[in-house]
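Retro notes
What went well: the complex prediction finally ran end to end.
Inputs used:
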Amino acid sequence: MKHYIERDVPFELHEVNILGAEDEDLEEISRESGVGLSLDEMKMVKEHFEELDRNPTDLELEAIGQAWSEHCCYKSSKPILKDTVFDIEAPQNIYVIEEDAGVVEFDDEHAYVVALESHNHPSAIEPYGGAATGIGGIVRDVTCMGAQPLAFVDPLFFGPLDMDYEELPSGTKHPRYLFNGVVHGISDYGNRLGIPTLAGMVYFDESYTSNCLVNVGCIGIAKKEELIRSRVKEPGDVFIVAGGRTGRDGIHGVTFASDELREDSEEEDIGAVQLGDPITKEPLIHASLELNRKNLLQGMKDFGGGGLSCVAGEMALAGGYGAEVQLHKVPLKEDDMAPWEIWVSESQERMMYAVKEEDVERVLEICKKWDVEATRIGRVIDEKRVKVYYEDEKIMDLDLEFQTGGPTYCRPTEIVEYTEEVEEEEPELPEDHEKVLLELLSRDNINSKEWVIRQYDHEVRENTILKPLQGVLGNQGPGDASVIKPLEGSFKGITITTDVLPSLTSLDPKAGAMNTLDEAIRNLVSVGSRPHSFADCLNFGNPEIPERLGDFKRVAEGLGEAARSLNIPFVSGNVSFYNQTEYGAVKPTPSILACGLIEDVRESITMDLKEESNPVYLVGETKGAMGGSEYYRMVGGNTGKVPKVDIERLETSMEEMLKAHSEGLIRSCHDISLGGLGVALSEMCLAGNMGVKIEIATELRSDDFLFSESPTRWLVEVDEEDVDEFEKTFSVPINRLGVTGGKDLHIDINSEVIDVELEKIRETWKTSLAEKMGE
Amino acid sequence: MKREDVDVAVLRIEGTNCEEESYLAFKRLGANAEKVHLKQLLSKDVLEDEERSLDGYDILMIPGGFSAGDYIRAGAIFGARTKSALGEELKNFVETGKPVLGVCNGFQILVEMGLLPAVDKTISQVPKAALETNDSNRFECRPTLLKVEDNSNCVFTRGYKEHEIVLYPSAHKEGKFVLDESISLEELEKNDQIVFRYTAPDGGEPEYPWNPNGSLDNIAGICNPEGNVLGLMPHPERVFDPYTNPDWTRKGLKENRGDGKTLFKSVLEYVEDNF
């Protein structure tokens, strides 16, 4: 049978012959059109149109395909998230989960806005453009709440940099090429927008070789009274599309994001990668914020996945109404686009405004001042439908609840206890601990990321109080969290960190998730701030595989349990499934963007050692559970024993650390994470350009103690005169390890001695990554 | 002229992005600063009450960013547009001795317009210098140390001590200062036009990264022979306060100023005294 029937109109329009279609026709239609719906979903569509007694137009089917994609409607993840990370009630919540970005109280008059998203598949194909448009999308998510963007964050995940070209899976680009392209894309685009990039991480692992992960986040600030929703207010409001023109770039982006990458993805899906243009975007931000400040907008939403189809539908439905759109009025990059292409294009740099009729003219004038193209394309109607016209022809008339409701699946999950499958293999005690430490410090998951960080402007806007690199000029080390001061005339600050522990999460998803939150909290506490909110970007494999969805479920449980016990809300999030190729799935990667608050930024603390002869303390307890540690990865050890987070202990430690901070007892502080105490101490020395001499007696193996990644631990430098008061502050275990001074790192542990000049450590730590990138 | 009567225009077009902190630097010191879009000076696409004229201002600042995307050459598009539309007014502005400051992209624009180095006249027809791509071929965001080479001719540096070393952060991909062969370094020296040079922490010859871009003779900023037009790559407005210094947690906050504050204070004092 014929799948498409051409309608006799002066433009391209087909009816999709769904009414008489058999199952195999339905499957074929879904495949041919690229809408990406399953057979069951196609049957739901067929049923709906049987009731209407007509065939859908190509545009209607496309609209449904976009709205029902995993990317837009979270059909696999929603039931799990509802039971875990959603609905953590905290007094600081303003709008959480329900909008494109989370809105959280900053002070009486202001709110901060947080969003975190993945841009994985586009970046795997076109790293520069994919990463750049990722930044573009996330900054619109924050702007459309009426907030001034303040900072970007970007956790990135690639295959090993030194991988042989012969080992690369077919159709896959080399990790070095991807890494370079992504960093360059973020640098070019983020810097051009004039928003600092303040936090992030880069993690290398084989599982990301054929499916790299690019997560981008943005934080903004708004006056509470100027917050605006992504919804229409009343019938008669006018829809205005502003910013870039609509083109063929980014068609089927969401369906592309909701499927596995294949060898031929590049040829097949290159059109799904949008093109970014920061110089259209920058004035669009200014114009949007000015319009909002002047109270000329009823609602505002950015064009993201699904394009106009999703924006119009979601804005209207959230307001309780419907939309009528004159599609031929949308300004185009290419004249010959078919209506359905215009309707679902994900072209970048576009914003939708809902505006009262009487304000339309003023809105168009202000856009013109900013050289932002703005066009009225439709209006809000008093019924929950979306009607689309092209010239005089009605080409869509759909019930909104049917279209955007989307299916929800309780897909089967299977929980795998990976730790029980591990064949225990304890490495031999190394003969030379110093050599092990230096080798750890040169590893790409630990070595200095200065090569990346300095390509991002992290100071524009002059709000950055603690920068990503901290310490002595020319010798700076990795800060635990960055600190910004968002308001003129107030010293209150927001602190920012991003974290995830894929190696641990792949071994024990739940424990890995909890350790990830523990690390995020440690980082915020390190600089002296109180953890305040989380955003998550959950990157996983194919959810139709029960084991993958089982991993997802365990991770969500871990995140939910830890956050709920601490009463720190998840305010915004994004799920990215299908990060999987025929070579396997990525390790479960729940990236976390955590924000904290600090009352006075001038009291924030950096991680560099400050002064000679100061005692150095270890706060927290070191255990030998080495599963998932970077040390075991390096030496090839295997164990199913993984570090576990004791939430009560975490809470007590956090409170006691914050008390020590508030009493001014902490001179420098660094959290202990990848590579353990040995690495953390080295970093503090390097950043302070100052040595340390410590002595440890432990029942653990000396290498386990030095490189264990047990959670809830910090290294703290204290003034000698504050020692008594410092010690009195803690009920959790603390240990005085030694004192600062000299130019050597000197560790004596169970009579094993490491004694190495800082210069030698610096050489390996600082240059390893840059050298691999061809510097 | 009183401080609060000093009108400062912080100029922007699409792609300008350091305007907020530049504006605040003047405002915090009590001047009457305003962010002005180029279109407001040209009376194009703006309401009547948004129209402005350049000669209504006492100081013009062109802040950093990526004006018009900088897809041709940094500052080229903004420079050409401003020059063709406002050339004559700008010339008058400079010739009456009013100060013009260009930071980062603003420096590139001043060079593109021919307002710097302007060795023999106020505006040269074609650019006589350029800010080329950094030797590293990368964007470099890092602390840089500058030696104040001139604190008498230039109206922006009179509050600094001679040869004082200041920390202004740099953040650019195109900041390598080079001169057209028709101009010699000696000429700039003779005219006291070299205002800032990059320096190493010990005050010695700066290797990369202390000279972050490979600039000729380590030049970070120059002024015109009259000293009222200054362009520099590093950002004084990012170190107005002590707590945005990259190493403030080591030094403490006893001194209530960042190194950049003096630059803004100096030029305001110059205007107060002379207009």
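What we learned: Chain A touches chain B through 46 residues (CB under 8 Å).
What to try next: split runs per interface for comparison.
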